Amino acid sequence: MSMKQSHSINGLNNFIAGWYIDPELCDSIVEQGERNPSHFNSGIKQYRDCDLKKFNPTFENRYCKELWHVIEEYKKVYPFSYKEIHPWGWTPPRIQRYDPGKFYNDEHCENTGYKEYTSRHLAYMTYLNDVEDGGGTEFLLQGITTKAEKGLTLIWPAGWTHYHRGVVSNTETKYIITGWLVFSWLK
């Protein structure tokens, strides 16, 4: 399978890489989210979320096949991400919905050393829709802000070197899928 690579983030040696997954799958997930907002948990977070499997098991299967191809491409670009280190797999994908004006503004990394996060090796995230008014992700130490483009699936290291935060869109709803590539013996 040949995947379209995002050149806007990969030309730099920053260990952030992205490829595009099937845009029709992204459209189908967003359409179901718009028709069934009750699927999403609500709470004190800036977003509403749910497990993609609960949201739609067929979408989860299709998404995981696409994610597998992205992971394989990442491994080609960054072979030291898997050579001579413990095997890793991924956590179940979660879909998140950010209403206009809502975003995850906290600067954070995915592995902070706390016990529940130590198995996180890499993060993955897919933008499910285009957002023209903000909606991307700012990687603070790399000086990079990615654009929320439908299908763009990013992978980056989970540690302190990749602090990031969401970029607000005051006018548009943003949908993403996110999760982690984790060392299997620590799950």
Primary descriptors:
187 residues, single chain, 26% strand, alpha+beta, three-stranded antiparallel β-sheet, 10 strands
What would your notes on this structure say?
The radius of gyration is 16 Å and the shape is globular. The chain contains 4 helices and 10 strands, in the order H-E-H-E-H-H-E-E-E-E-E-E-E-E. The protein has 187 residues and is α+β, with helices and mostly antiparallel strands. The relative contact order is 0.23. Strands 1, 2, 3, 4, 5, 8 and 10 form a 7-stranded antiparallel beta sheet that branches. It has a 3-stranded antiparallel beta sheet with strand order 7-6-9, with no helix packed on it. The longest helix is centred in the middle third of the chain and has 21 residues.
Task: Give the CA-based shape.
Answer: globular
Strand content: 25-35%
Helix content: 10-25%
Q: What is the straight-line distance between the termini?
A: 30 Å
Radius of gyration, in Å, reads 16 Å
Indicate the structural class. alpha+beta
H/E series, N to C? HEHEHHEEEEEEEE
User: Mean of the pLDDT scores?
Assistant: 88
The DSSP helix count reads 4
Describe this structure in a few short sentences:
The protein has about 190 residues and is an alpha+beta fold. The protein has helices at about 5-10, 25-35, 50-55, 55-75, and strands spanning about 15-20, 50, 90, 95-100, 120-125, 135-140, 145, 150-155, 165, 175-185. The longest helix has 21 residues, at about 55-75.
